[in-house]
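for the record, two folds in this file. i put them one after another cuz i was lazy. first one right below, seq on top, structure tokens after. the second one comes after a little note so u can tell where it starts
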Amino acid sequence: MTKRHGGAILVEHLKAEGVKRVFSVPGESFLAALDGLYDSGIDNVVCRHEGGAAMMAEAHGKMTGQPGICFVTRGPGATNASAGVHVAKQDSTPMILFVGQIDRAHRDREAFQEVDYRAMFGTVAKWVAEIETTERIPEYLSRAFHVATSGRPGPVVLALPEDMLSAEAEAPAIPPRAPAPKALSHAQRHALTKALARAHRPLVVLGGSQWSEEAATDIARFAENWGLPVAVSFRRQGHMDNAHPNYAGDLGVGMNPKLGQRLKAADVVLWLGARIGDNQTGGYTLVDPAAPGKTVLHVYPDASELGRVVRPDLGICCPPEEMAAALAAEPAPEGVVARWADWTAAARAEYEAWQQPKPTPGAVRMEEVVGWLSANLPEDAILTNGAGNYAAFLHRYYRFRRYGTQLAPTSGSMGYGFPAAVSASLQYPGRVVVCMAGDGCFQMTLNEMSTAVQYGATPIVIVANNGQYGTIRMHQERHYPERISGTRLANPDFAALARAYGGHGEVVARQEDFADAFDRALGAGVLSVIELRLDPEALTAGATLSEIRAAAKK
């Protein structure tokens, strides 16, 4: 065993854990780690803003199930990156953020860019620590990988004092995580299926992380065998093929009101991998934590979540993919499929009706854009988005056919879609990656177009440009009609900006021009931006600006 500086020791453990790519914005506080990455074979994607880097790392964790790795510098670097850490926390995504730190001897003097990271990240990370001793780097990293991936996955933050990281030490390597044996018992599976079999109006709700393509196939087989209607939680539409006859739609912001009422009317609800939150329950109006009015079956990988919001009649601590595999092999008891056949068929019919486009005003119409994408993109195309009313069109009209094809923040973070699309394009260079973004959402992280061009990422960004922060304008008109304050935007020529970065850019001002513009973007082989010039009147998927304003005045 030879002495190495702390950066080399750190990178050795990353390699042992199978890390192939990290995301960073460089800083002098972690030069030793950059040196360790130099000839490591690990791809270091250098970003333009720490928020973009953290969101790329979070998206990598979503796609792979392994911790996304991000390096940022101290102080402002860490505060910028906190947006991505918050996404990882609320989305249950494994992630490790390494933050450069001031020298140990200078602490507690408010030295240049000094921050107490335990206090700063204490409520948005699963674990926050500062490594004091170079020899203990492998120990801390081993724990970080275990914490980030165990139970409910989430983000870990490790602060790296500059002098600790540059110091040399002899540090024995620690082997990577050992696979955990499956723990689901026959008694647990039997108790769940027995409770479900007593239902007359059942509903299965899928959500959370720790899913896979195999798990999505398994749960579809279970739903088909048992004749069950299946909904998904907010922005988890890739958990089940939306074309499957048992798929009933998504619960969340902009949900089909009839699906919401079906959740309320259900007598047995199986929450599989999903937290029971306000988005899925209409602000807890569809499922009241104090009086659910139904049998609640909750399967979740972390015991601390069971009973946290709603008391379950049966709570099982188990990863969703393990339960899905078990349920796929479970035959339905005699008579249950016929008992709720009409209920399931009605749920699917309501989803199909909700998919019928509601026309919006303007020469370019979002419902037709998304409908064209749904009909023409390959089944393995990856769709990303951030936050904004434009996303409601995607949720409502796009049919996700495969697991892993939806990358979106359940935390509702603006600016997420584009960094996620860059990360997806780097991870899957042979697949079509489309980022849906609003004009406000895209401008929060569009500087990462430089990152995309530098590393050869080729996402296609479709910018819904209506000249305003549409979601906030919607709420503004509902509460303070005609008093427009703080929601108008002065926008650049997004297509010209893409070309300035070295990408391909077009403006679409007529609906009939969209398909050809998309084909040209697809054939360009570089980052592409298609700017849609939308009518500001087309404020939401369900109502125009004038309709919202008129309703508020009644």
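(here's the note) second protein begins now
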Amino acid sequence: MTDTVRTSAPSAAAARHLRRRRARDGRFRYYGLTAIFVALGALAVLVLTIGTQAFSAATYNVVRYEVTLDPAVIAPEGANRPADISRNVEGFYGLVRDNLLKTFPEAEADRVSRRELSDFVTRLAVLPTARLVANNPELVGSTITLTAPLNDDLDLYLKGQGVRERKIKAGAVSSVQGGQDGTFLLSGTGAFEAVVAGLAVASVDRAEDAGQPDVLLTAGVSTGRLSDIDAGSARMELLTGRAQDFAQARATARIILSAESERTISDRQIAWVLALREMGRVDRVPRWTLLTNSDSTYPELAGGLAAIVGSLLTMLITALVAMPIGILAAVYLEEFAPRNRLTEFIEVNINNLAAVPSIVFGLLGAALYINFLGMPRSAPLVGGLVLALMTFPVVIIASRAALKAVPPSVRSGALAVGASQMQTVFHHVVPLAAPGILTGAILGMARALGETAPLLLIGMVAFVGDVPRSPADESTVMPVLIFSWSNNAERAWEPLTSAMIIILLAFLLVMNGLVVFLRRKYERRW
């Protein structure tokens, strides 16, 4: 007789438990997907924030000046050698200033106007031209086009940053009448109706005691400041150009939302820079100087070349010290060291060193290398040695993990055919573990490249205007330069800081890409 096995239906308690377990599994998947999307969203916000700020620093505005290289100014008697010409920054700057005064003669009226016009270009901006003429003395006496970066505040204004304003198309002006006080009365049917409406909207964005915002009216190369505005007329103070240019012209009104006393540029400077752009003398060009210039106190002249070279020299010293010593230490601990309390103590401390804050290594480096050994401050040599101390644990731990991943059969087979332990390790085990060893070493170097705190303690925060030529020269690195620029008060440093962050991230991506390439090309699966 055959017994029939009956499968009973699950009990109500078991069914409830099964539903709860499935619900927990579903929630876990939901939490995992949510975490991934949150992380990707945060990364997107970070990239978008840095990228939008860095986009402004990718280009800058330069102004062209037609100047005649007067020998009496550029190469006077007794100072006409190439070295003297290259140092004659004041002479070249004087030519640029004279060109601006010739273009805008109204600036000759008072000292304040002359100073405002002189602020269009910094003295050091003419240094490349001075060096060019020094290398080509035959240019002295000829007329050349001198190109120099625009003042950083005016550069931001032309990019639509730094000064809050609203542009409104005004109506046609039918008549321009001069007054005894030097102002002009502009009139036309409905000429300023849109301006009046714009002022009403602008008053909402301003404090009650801020007063009436400045209104600039531009027609071609001419700009004036308006007052007593109503729908059909306005009184204008001419800032630059000719009043007749506004007759029968549909000019553009600019309502400046911030008071002139609260801005870094004046109404007259805005008028002059708009006139230069209308003349076609202002060009927006790529900012290659960010990669070719060294640091400067002027944002429009600052670059990261010295910091980039300093970072490369520092990483070179770090690699030459940390990689061979760290890899050999890992090989000894994994393949040759006896298993006793001493090696266990060393292994525990290596793991602990990997978690020590980086600033502690900076304190150690300052005490050992600078105070005790007397090495130079702010040098890539010292910075590389400090970062090597910090990188040692990472390299040793990664290298030991790669060596452990090699199957014991490789060692047994090599020993079975008569190889010594040294030959087994260096002819068979290490080559097979090399991809993992290099991966760990490069990741350790990538971490060191982004460190700031230990390098601040050994003086690499100093201002460096020259590109270092050797590891013993004074230098800085990219993370420290980013830290320094971010602390500067001028707004123009913000996009430059973001641009330097992009450059640093590019270096890190290259190093991480090299890790991925090595792992995929040489990785062995056992």
